Amino acid sequence: MRAIKEARKFIERKPDNANAKILARLVLALESEADFPISDLYLLSFDQFKLALEILDEWRLDRHYASKARLFDLSMQMAALKSEVPAAKEVKKTA
Questions:
Q1: Any idea where the domains of the chain sit in the sequence?
Q2: How far apart are CA 28 and CA 60, in angstroms?
Q3: Which residues contact 21 (CB under 8 A, 6 or more apart)?
Q4: Distance (Å, whole) CA 60 – CA 57
C-alpha cells in the first residue's frame, strides 16, 4: 500500500497539479471499474508515471486479496448452512 499512500499524500499536497489530477482520475476509475484512457498515463512526469504503475500493481494485488476474502466468507457461510441442515432435520424428527 505504499504507492497508494504516496499518491494520496501527493494529491493532498498538490490538488491543482496536472499529475495529481490524472492520478486521482486513475484511482477513481480503478475503484469504480470505469474506463481510463491509458494514454493519459503518458502525460505524467516520469516519477508520477512510475507511481501510477505501482498503484496499478498494488490495486491488482489488493483485488486478489479482496476476492480471496469474499471466497473465504462465502465458504464460511456455506459451511454454516451445511451444519444447520442436519440440525433442522433432527428437530423435525423429535417434534
A1: 2-68
A2: 14
A3: 15
A4: 5
pLDDT, tens digit only, all 95 positions of the chain: 689 899 999 999 999 999 999 999 999 999 888 999 999 999 999 999 999 999 999 998 887 677 667 777 778 888 887 776 555 555 555 55
The model scores a pTM over 0.85 = no
Phi/psi for 34 (5° steps) reads -95, 165
Q: Could you tell me the three cell numbers for 53?
A: 504503475
Identity of the residue numbered 42: Y
- Tell me the C-alpha distance between 57 and 37, whole Å: 17
∠ CA(4), CA(33), CA(12), 5° rounding? 30
What is the structure's pLDDT at 14? 94
In this structure, what C-alpha cell is assigned to residue 88? Answer: 433442522
Q: Which residues contact 13 (CB under 8 A, 6 or more apart)?
A: 20
